[in-house]
Amino acid sequence: MSELDQSKKYFEDFSEGFVFEYQVPGLSVEEITDFALQYDPQPFHLDETAASETHFGGLVASGFQTQLKCFGPFCREVLLNSGSVGAPGIDNLKWLRPWFPNVLLEVSAKLIRKRVSSKLTGLGYINFELEALADGAPLLTMEWAVIMLTRGTPSID
Amino acid sequence: MSELDQSKKYFEDFSEGFVFEYQVPGLSVEEITDFALQYDPQPFHLDETAASETHFGGLVASGFQTQLKCFGPFCREVLLNSGSVGAPGIDNLKWLRPWFPNVLLEVSAKLIRKRVSSKLTGLGYINFELEALADGAPLLTMEWAVIMLTRGTPSID
User: How close does chain A come to B122, measured CA to CA in Å?
Assistant: First the structure.
């Protein structure tokens, strides 16, 4: 484990009220079908004609792809510049509405609580709530905890 | 919405006690780093050397990739032959241990409960619990509900 890196954010550097807001560009039809072919080949994600015959009335992105596209900017802008060591899971992922092609998402990831680990020395949990809006209405929400090194103890070795 | 397709399984065709068991082959280093580059570029998923200096001690797959690789066979073998119309989310995704390269996963997806929707005519909820084991110990678990057409009402138009 390396020394404390002063250019990074650690547990203590995240304040209650921290919010990261960003946009996720709409996906093309090809991006949606390419992902579906590889990971989630249900007809409403895979093929425009087949999708038009389903209750969605047209092609929609896999919910997993929506989640990944919302997570990406958070990962790059928040986690890569931090003492994050991973996450124990996702508490509550909701796909509230379908994501149709070429629809921009407005995303906010809000710090909802934080606590020092009672079991693991030098680590804390920071809980985030992410909400993605399409045309002003919620489309995806999820909550999860990031496990983060504290400045107090730079190593977990 | 098409007519009831007798080759498919509908809500009534899934019994309490249904279990789908399968294996997920281990991922190569390249598969792990390719996914990370696109979706989850944290150092322990992206680069063997950087990963060796983290608490994981080596490269591990993104938890999102683990989830997708576990979902894929279930999607193809269970959902594509059914009246599934989607899912409202994932209730509880737990990443219990890291997935190192070339480790086979033994997965079981078990039906844990089902109920006819009280609000949506012709639809029911089927809840599944998925567990992936590596070397006999749980590595990933998740629960989710599939929304499924009933035989009684083949259309939700």
Answer: 13
CATH number where A97 lies: 3.10.129.10
Q: How many domains does chain B fold into?
A: 1
Cα separation of B21 and B131, whole Å? 10
**ipTM score here?**
0.93
Q: Using one digit for the tens of pLDDT, what is the confidence trace for A123-136?
A: 999 999 999 999 99
A80 close to B (CB below 8 A): yes
Residue A86: list chain B partners with CB under 8 A: 42, 44, 56, 63, 95, 98
Please choose, from the candidates B72, B77, B70, the residue with its C-alpha nearest in 3D space to the C-alpha of residue B138. Answer: B70
Structural contact between residues A132 and A141, judged by C-beta atoms closer than 8 angstroms: yes
Residue B91 touches partner A, C-beta closer than 8 Å: yes
pTM: 0.94
Sign of the four-CA dihedral B102, A63, B128, A74: positive
Instruction: Write out the residue range of the structural domain in which residue A107 sits.
Output: 11-21+61-149
pLDDT digits (tens, 9 = 90+) for A37-56: 999 999 999 999 999 998 89
